[in-house]
Amino acid sequence: MTATPPPGELLQLRHVVVGYRKGSPLLPPITFTVRSGDLVGILGPNGAGKSTRLKTLLGLLVPLGGELGYPLGRPPRIGYVPQGARPDFAYPLSAFEVALMGRYGQVGLGRRPKRRFAQFLADLKARAPAWEAAAKPLAGMKVVTYHKSWSYVSKWLKLDESGYIENKPGIPPSPDHLAQLIVSMRAQGTKAILVESFYNKAIAEEVADKTGAMLLNMPSDVGATKDIKSYFDLVDGVLHEMARVH
Fold first, then answer.
1. Residue 142: beta bridge partners?
2. Distance (Å, whole) CA 159 – CA 104
């Protein structure tokens, strides 16, 4: 009889040996479990085997030994972002092609993404001018965020992030940090504090009261509220909340 795995387990490594040639392991046998919601960091100098271990987890390399198990009965979906930050300009890709690449894992080798995805991109292109128009007045606005989780939105809207409620995610801010933040916000004329809808807002409300900044309840993903049922709703929701400052 097969034992039922503990809830949330996605990946199990039991004495897994990684490397490229039999008899030449790069690391000692590895045993650990990855669960839903885990944040796992792999540290080590160049050549220590970090990339080889990740490639083995991705299924790009076959383990030299041990057992790589999937408690759900299938491999979990894994996204892999290579460490190279510079694009190869000899191999240019359009934004459409980059977005399209994200679908190939779903449709299978040799097949094209379905018409529904093409329609999504067409709708995205149609809505972009209105979004850009709504974003234009926000450029240069000084804001504080709960922690550094709105960087991409700030870059798109050209917001000026002047500080963070939590300098280190998950670690409550010290009184000294909050006092310095309040002084800085007053001096810079910070207009808004962006807080995801799932965070406790007590500290952010106190900072808002002492600085005059508006506290914005920012939707962070689809389903954040009952009205946000799609990506388009999410972007509309972000822009609508930001527009409250003006």
1. 160
2. 34
What are the backbone angles phi and psi of residue 189, rounded to the nearest 5°? 70, 40
Tokens, residue 224? 């954040």
Q: In angstroms, rounded to a whole number, what is the distance separating the alpha carbons of residues 186 and 209?
A: 11
> Residue 239: beta bridge partners?
none
Taking residues 27-56, report their average pLDDT: 83
Within 8 A by CB and 6+ apart from 10, the residues are 34, 35, 36, 70, 71, 72, 76
Q: How far are the Cα atoms of 20, 36, 70, 80, 98 from residue 75, in angstroms, in the given order?
A: 22, 13, 6, 14, 24
| Phi, psi angles (nearest 5°) of residue 159 | -80, 155
Q: Is the pLDDT of residue 84 over 70?
A: no
Could you identify the residue written with the tokens 């106190």? 206
pLDDT of residue 137: 93
Domains and their CATH numbers in the chain: 9-69 (3.40.50.300), 127-243 (3.40.50.1980)
